[in-house]
Fold:
Amino acid sequence: MLKTLALILLLSGALLLSLLTFFTVSNLEVFSERRWLGIDVRGVYVSDKKVVVLTDHTRLGSLRRLEGYAYYAKCRLRMDVMKVFLPNMEVNFSVTNITLYVLYTKDAMSVTKIFSGYLSEEDVDALLKALELKKISETKLKNATTRRPRWYRYGQYFESDMCELKRGELSVLVLFEGYLKGIKYYNKTRSRPGFFSYIPVDAELEIVYRVKPTQGQLLRALDLMAIGGILLGLDIYRKPSEYREFLNNLFKLKKLLSRTKEPRK
Amino acid sequence: MKGLLRGLKKTSLARIATYFSYAHYRVFLSVLTVTSLMIFMHTAILIFMLPPPFSTGPFLAPIIALTSFFYVFVIVYLISVFTSELSTGGALLFLSFPLSRVEYVFSWILNSVVAPSLLYLLSIAIPVAVIDPTLVLNISGVEITLAVLEMTAVGTVIFLLSLITKNRKTALSAGILLYLVVPYLGLIAFSYFKYSLKIDLSNTPVFWVYEALYPYKAGLFTYGSVSWSYNLAFPTAILIALILAATLFYSKYRLEVV
Structure:
């Protein structure tokens, strides 16, 4: 049983050490998952030049971050028409900036609660400051229409870089900035009270995991190997007869190797 | 019971250890190969497929569901080796030496049920502990404990059945039935009773037995109705102790080796 235990410790230590060492030199994405983002409009600012649209936050849940793992979020977004539909008007605008913010859920809730409905210019400045202050990370989405996937046949396609996620209850929200192209007013009365509006986009968030092994992990794997080695040594010392054949072969190999090393006369 | 304990006290641990290492040595290569494969699978799955960072439920369920499904065959195989030794007369040879039936059976319980379960525990606990030791203390520790206890509990039941029947086929069929068929059929039956016949069996002795025999599956599949904690382990530990006592009692007073 000691031999089994020793070999298992030795093998598992070696396996873990080799895999973790491989990850220290590679930057491989080990896994990813995708989620659709709900893009409901929470706050909007429309002037005769500028349009700013703040979407509602999407909860990602509680991130449990393991030792040596790094998590990143990457956003993809498609816009068929660059419009935002408000209760009594349809605002046509041209996008200049789309930013994805990662925040703790409680911060995202407070931001979307404070800056909801029609915003003023001061509100927009305060919103940008608040986001800057509360964000965990942010990333700008770049126009990647030329590289859009085959299934997105129409519209503009945007992609972001990776932004890192931290441990905790996380949410993301998107901020659109652009310049006004036109407003179409409706003559209908509002069917529902409150601020109901939306922006017609498909947004998808990809969460990518990467392994960046820590020194602790590598040392733990090395410890296992060392314990396995010591136990195996003890077993060899205790019952040398069981290993005699193996040791004989080892000595033969050693002899053979030393013979090949001798210079030819 | 007192007699049995007295008998156990008298038994020499050295004899049990000697026979256990002999019996283990016979199956050393197969056990080592399968356990190494398990370690490789656990490590690879843990690094490449897990962890889902936003999930709150049982964390190791996909790993344990997959690997325990294969690993139980090792226990069934080892019990069948023991049964074939009993039925073909190989046991007579060892029992003619100063080795009592209790010592012989106890060594085989260690060899065929306890040791593989502990090796499975090691094969999953080592990668988890190296990657993040805090996981072992959280929900993953409960998961691993319950999975290993479930393996041991069912293993002891199969061992007792095989000991009574002394038939290798019984060991194999009981192994497949108790490890792979009954737990899932049981779940289907419970849900059928609950949702179609409107009979809730969750507070009846039938479910208690199921919960004691399959604590991991009870915790996993009835997630929410059964609290996912170490409390689930106590009935199983008691069940294992009872079955072990019954096995040793049978081997001391009823076992006939021909």
Q: What stands out?
A: The longest strand of chain A covers residues 168-185.
